[in-house]
Amino acid sequence: MKLSQLQEQIKQDSLASLYLVEGQEGALLDQSRRLFMQTIPVDQQDLNYSHYDLAEDVVDGLLDDLASLPFLGERRLIIVDNPIFLSPKVKLPNTAEKQFLDLIQNPIPGNILVLMANDLKLDQRKKITKKVLAQSEKISLPLVAEGQIRSIIMQRLTAQGFNIDDMALKELLLRTNASYTDIMAQLDKLKAYAKDSRQIDLTAIQGLVPKSIHAHVFDLTDAVMRGKVAESLHLYRQLVLNGEAPLKINTLLLNQFRLLLQVAGLTGDQASKARTLNVHPYRIKLAQASLNKYRPSQLRTGYLALQSIEIALKSSQADPALLFEEFILKQNQQ
């Protein structure tokens, strides 16, 4: 189900006793959390709202809440982050698992359990996971596509009396890697900048919106592949100065080269490639545009060289900067 359907359930007072929320879009996950919170009056939340993070908390408190009636109210809301007992790595003790299964199959009237699975990998072979999937209302919050993001931004800004030009919007998407969550986090700042002119321009984006690490790596990959030695070294050093570990930079570069090779080897449209590779369609769009400028043989050579650097960084005391400089120079000789 979608958030709009959850809103309708709340409006109709027809809530289920168990929800499983999955997705990678932080802004939408937060929105779902706020909607659930609306089901408990503010003056009752101290008594009838509980939150557990099972990456840190033990399950005992959760089981006690599930077994308790709402206190002086119609509902009790229990939100659980990181329900890792649904994953392959964690198993509840037999007694706790039996109690949990009993409580979701025969819920206490008025209790609402929300499992925020986010992008947790579920083990669908486990009995407890099968039962949760069978008993729950599932809310799926997938990544928001670029076209939808553009439409949402334009509608929201227009409704509030603002305008954003095409160049500014394009740069905003590039800097945030078309992350709906990251873009939503930037809008208040951009509106404050444009409170007098009501116009969000390219200068505002360049001055106020920091580039994501993925955007920096995209720029670095492009500089490497186009033989821009000085620019490549500058971008690499800036990432290190910004606190990024050389191994992480190399891993992200390696992933970008891998993505380019994978996209080059696939047929179909952007959406089908994104599904196959399990990445945001916007990254596929950028990769396809970049491939028109790169030689496949150079991509393969670069990918193998980055693999060698990763091994060296993990197994020796080699100077990361020197390894990268050698990589750049060799790539420029291809």
Automatic annotation (TrEMBL):
Leading EC class: transferase
Transmembrane segments: none
Chain ranges of the DNA polymerase III delta N-terminal domain: 19-135
UniProt cross-references to Gene3D superfamilies, sorted A to Z: 1.10.8.60, 1.20.272.10, P-loop containing nucleotide triphosphate hydrolases (3.40.50.300)
Signal peptide range in chain numbering: none
Residue ranges annotated for the DNA polymerase III delta subunit-like C-terminal domain, each copy included: 216-330
UniProt cross-references to InterPro entries, sorted A to Z: DNA_pol3_clamp-load_cplx_C (IPR008921), DNA_pol3_delta-like_C (IPR048466), DNA_pol3_delta_N (IPR010372), DNA_polIII_delta (IPR005790), P-loop_NTPase (IPR027417)
EC numbers: 2.7.7.7
Catalytic activity: DNA(n) + a 2'-deoxyribonucleoside 5'-triphosphate = DNA(n+1) + diphosphate
Keyword terms of this UniProt record: DNA replication, DNA-directed DNA polymerase, Nucleotidyltransferase, Transferase
Similarity remark: Belongs to the DNA polymerase HolA subunit family.
Name listed for the protein in its UniProt record: DNA polymerase III subunit delta
Organism lineage string: Bacteria, Bacillati, Bacillota, Bacilli, Lactobacillales
Gene (name only): yqeN
